[in-house]
Amino acid sequence: MTDPLLLVLTNLPDADSAQALAAHLVEARVAACVNVLAPATSVYRWEGAIETATEVPLLIKTPASRYAALEAAIRAQHPYELPEVIAVPVTHGLPGYLDWVRTETAPDA
Amino acid sequence: MTDPLLLVLTNLPDADSAQALAAHLVEARVAACVNVLAPATSVYRWEGAIETATEVPLLIKTPASRYAALEAAIRAQHPYELPEVIAVPVTHGLPGYLDWVRTETAPDA
Amino acid sequence: MTDPLLLVLTNLPDADSAQALAAHLVEARVAACVNVLAPATSVYRWEGAIETATEVPLLIKTPASRYAALEAAIRAQHPYELPEVIAVPVTHGLPGYLDWVRTETAPDA
To answer: Is the predicted pLDDT of residue B12 greater than 70, yes or no?
Structure first.
């Protein structure tokens, strides 16, 4: 049985914290590759009012078997008390790339 | 049974209409949080020729149970006759964040 | 049985190569629509060190039945030896838009 990949999304308050978290996740081998996207505007309700804030989205590639460790690493470093962390399943992909993600995130590598 | 989340994508023709739709969707409780991404270039075929257009992508977080209401709200406000609206399933996530999305989009909140 | 759609992601080293690949994929009818996102910063490990590089992400919409042809078209034109190509399933969407994607990518159209 191969270990399916996930595409995981989170948002940071600025480019510096986004870049720092991305490097930390790769360093800790809980992600093989992270894309730090251009700044976005997030819209949500807070205490009854519609708020907007600049945020920097991350697209994180990791195997499902590493999701729990990835989530723990995000929580430990993320400046928000309750950050967005959501994951969608990768059902197709270039086999060599999928294998590379698994190799880069092997805990005993 | 919990209500699984969806990550829903659509594209607007400019930042003003994107921001307005994002605020409307959160106000109407058909989305908990919307990320208005930096402008993108969309490429597609129209009447036999390859066209390009600037568009502003939205990443919308909502429960599957609210998808029909979200789609109707997008259609009612979107300037295109046939907008892109596609959704991918969220299979993992931070439990507190997933619960927040469900609470923010409860129809009787 | 309808043919489910995929949202496919890849990354190019600059806006020119991203735009050229997007146009090629639509021209070849292996994608109905491609969004060329604003430049991102990709973070990954290479030969033991954490590297960062600017990359331009593509979001590609195509039916699952066309995935193999799409992957082959990306590989044939992509400048990297082992590019990222991953796909996530589309489980909900505006029916008219989903049909448009299928029509635009029909091999004998």
So the answer is: yes
Contact (Cβ atoms closer than 8 angstroms) between residue A41 and residue A83:
no
By C-alpha distance, the chain A residue nearest B95 is A85
Q: Quote the CA–CA distance of B82 and C65 in Å, as a whole number.
A: 23
Domains of chain A, each with CATH number or no CATH: 5-104 (3.30.70.120)
Q: Which residue reads 């995000």 in tokens?
A: A74
Dihedral sign of CA atoms C87, C88, C91, C97 in order: negative
The answer to whether the CB of C74 falls within 8 A of the CB of C25 is yes
Chain B closest-CA separation from residue C47 CA (Å): 31
pLDDT digits (tens, 9 = 90+) for C78-98: 999 999 999 999 999 999 999
User: Which residues of chain B are within 8 Å of residue A88 when distances are taken between CB atoms?
Assistant: 7, 88-91
Q: What sign has the CA pseudo-torsion C5, B13, A88, C28?
A: positive
pLDDT value of position A1: 60
Residue C102's contacts (CB-CB under 8 Å, 6 or more residues apart) are C2, C3, C5, C32, C63
